[in-house]
Amino acid sequence: MSKHKIPCIRCLLRDLDQKAALKQVTAYRERLPVQQRANKELFEERLSICRDCKWLRLGVCQKSGYYVEASAYDKTKHCPLGTKIW
Ligand code: SF4
């Protein structure tokens, strides 16, 4: 049996060994004006929806093309499927 882990195709960056991408996303979030940042509760709620979504692939929303850990942190952004999703 292989010792290599097969990555989940619907993972968040934090679940993957994609340190460079996660660093880029973290830098993006730090550049956002404070008033535009989602609080922890909203951010985690959005990510939990993305985790179960068929459009999430390797941290990227296949509908918007954004890293969800960046877009979910920005209160002005919304899921491309509609504001009822998040
Ligand atoms: S932003 Fe919307 S469409 Fe994209 S992965 Fe998240 S829930 Fe799915």
Overall description:
The protein is mostly helical and 86 residues long. It has three helices and two strands, in the order H-H-E-E-H. The protein has a two-stranded antiparallel ribbon with strand order 1-2. A hairpin with a 2-residue loop joins strand 1 and strand 2 (60-61). It starts with 18 loop residues before the first helix and ends in a 15-residue tail after the last helix. The structure holds iron/sulfur cluster. Iron/sulfur cluster (SF4) is lined by residues 49-50, 53, 55-56, 61, 63-64, 68, 79-81, 85.
Bound molecules: iron/sulfur cluster
What is the average per-residue confidence, as pLDDT, rounded to a whole number? Answer: 86
Number of helices: 3
Instruction: Write down the Rg.
Output: 13 Å
Helix content range: 25-40%
User: Strand order within the widest sheet?
Assistant: 1-2
Features:
86 residues, mainly alpha, two-stranded antiparallel ribbon, binds iron/sulfur cluster, DUF6171
Short description:
By secondary structure, the protein is mainly alpha-helical. The chain contains three helices and two strands, in the order H-H-E-E-H. InterPro entries: DUF6171.
